[in-house]
Amino acid sequence: MADNGKKLDYRLVPSTCVYCGTGCGVLLEVTDGRVTGTLPQKDHPVSRGALCIKGWAAHEFVHSDKRLTRPMVRVDGKLVETDWDTALQTVAEGLSRAAKEHGPEAVGFFASARCTNEENYLLQKLARAAVRTNNVDHCARLCHASTVAGLAMSFGSGAMTNSIGELEDAEVILVVGSNTTEQHPIIGEKILAAARKGAKLIVIDPRSIHLSDFAQIYLRPRPGSDVAFINGLANVIVSEGLEDRDFIAARTEGFEEFRKAVAEYTPERVEELSGIPAADLAAAARLYAAAERASIVYCMGITQHTTGTDNVLALANLAMLTGNIGKPCAGVNPLRGQNNVQGACDMGGLPNVYPGYQRVNDEETAAKFEAAWGVEGLPRQPGLTVVEMTDLAAEGELRALFIMGENPMVSDPDINHVRQALQKLDFLAVADIMDNETLEYAHVVLPAASFAEKDGTFTNTERRVQRIRKAVEPVGEARADWEIVCGIAKKMGAAGFDFSSPEEIFEEIRKVTPSYAGMSYARLGTRGLQWPCPAEDHPGTPILHTESFPIGKGKFTALEFREPAETPDEEYPLVLTTGRLLFHYHTGTMTRRSPSLVREIDRAFVEVNPADAAELGIRDGERVKVSSRRGSVEVDAKVTERVGKGVIFMPFHFAEAAANLLTNPALDPVAKIPELKTCAARIEK
User: Fold this and answer.
1) Which CATH homologous superfamily contains domain 145-335?
2) In which region does residue 538 sit, left (phi positive, over 0), alpha (psi from -120 to 50) or beta (all else)?
3) Assigned fold of 10-56
4) Of 21-25, 53-57, 523-527, 558-562, the least confident
5) Which of 9, 144, 169, 441 is deepest in the core (most CB within 10 A)?
């Protein structure tokens, strides 16, 4: 009861957490039309009644005073409020004008790992069917593009092979390049639960993390030496006869070339390349190879390198070498960083594939989508990636850009370069829920609805497609992104965007995406289904590759170690690496609008090893300047043994001291992912 005696309107609305890729089940508490709290779903198949601190606070940003509430257009250099009709018309004209005057390839689209499957599907459809460009990409390019490329090359599918719950029953878990308890806390807890049940942990990370304290073996490599030490693990397994010969013979190809390549990576040579003691590397290899059920867990410490695809291929080699594919509690398990980064990839938010990873340059596939969408002349050439679009915008070749739910002025590498690119665009439109740094360069701003204000689906890191449900009305005049995209399409005269609900959009997705064909909103319920789910009587697929690989046999890849694009020198003698914190998420758009999370930490810092701090005369807590070849930022120094000598660490959530001002935009040649995890840097008092 309220103080005035009036009964409160209180409801619980089941939904899915909007933060990391774990996909925890939440109940949104709704009181008198406002989201007032978040509770865990007790029977949820992933989270089982648990939430991390971000999950418990997932409601706090919904009614923030930083929310965008009305459309805006730029007039005389200033953003001024306008009506929806004017805003949508302006966007349609801006995109159409650029395509008409400079060609479709002069227009680009950023999809979003924070938006629903339905919204990402519509945005790539708008790009391809209305503008006739494949220039559509999203932040997977900055986090797991190398996963999609590498696992597809090895196994034929670029996704997590097993399910989250299986980790609790693994015998050995190899955690590499993943600070799991901070980045994916509920998954981190399952790894700790496995350890309590007797599982052995091998943790490999340049930075000592919470899981290091529970590891049988903790290895601290030099950042960027991943191929060397993974090849080294394989070298020990092969040289000591610990490989699974039956699995290799029956289900793989390319083993002999691979064997010859890893023969060069003896533990002694790997120690020289990576700094990992030879005896420790050998012990880790034996421990992993001896297990019947060994799981590999990795994240962006593996992927965000110029050798990111090679790193992923090397881990796939390791799993096949020991037969740890296609069975429970094993596999290669990339942990997706955002709530719907898996789904945005599944929906074709990538420049080279339609929904379901069907290639744009395959004539039969393109014809299929032309028939489904009622259009002709879909482009056959793969489009530009996020970083390539930025580069071409800076060169004046990309003229118009539509950004849905991304904040590249904090998330992308070499932010000064990003700023120059956005300033040079003829037209920039941004749809977002919150005021952010990218809006400074927008010609049109469209206020979007948050996850609590719309229906749709997210796909989590274990390929589980789950519902989100509208709990409250959008703030102000905000609209769901699917409504925004449909509105733009209609203003452009495009057919095929007459949808009245996300469920209608999902029905179209099912028809063109084989792995989603057996799903429906009714079947998803509150537990979801894991793809592939090809028919309505199919239960979904918890484990991939149980009998065979989509490409027939798994492919071993012979790999050679390559140094990072930038290594320390006299001017920049340290290696900078970056990452996330438990209390914050990516660019801080949501978490830094959440009071309980801001109270925990709201200030950037740099971690420095005590030996380096002593040499530089830097005290703990002192203000310092961190510089790379691309810029400088001022932050507080945190002197700690968590980082090794010669290595410094910065979180990337803080726009006012943006780590990505410093990071290197050099690209992996295959996945086109930038090298965000290592660059040369220096610190000054």
Assistant:
1) Dimethylsulfoxide Reductase, domain 2 (3.40.228.10)
2) beta
3) N-terminal domain of TfIIb (2.20.25)
4) 53-57
5) 144
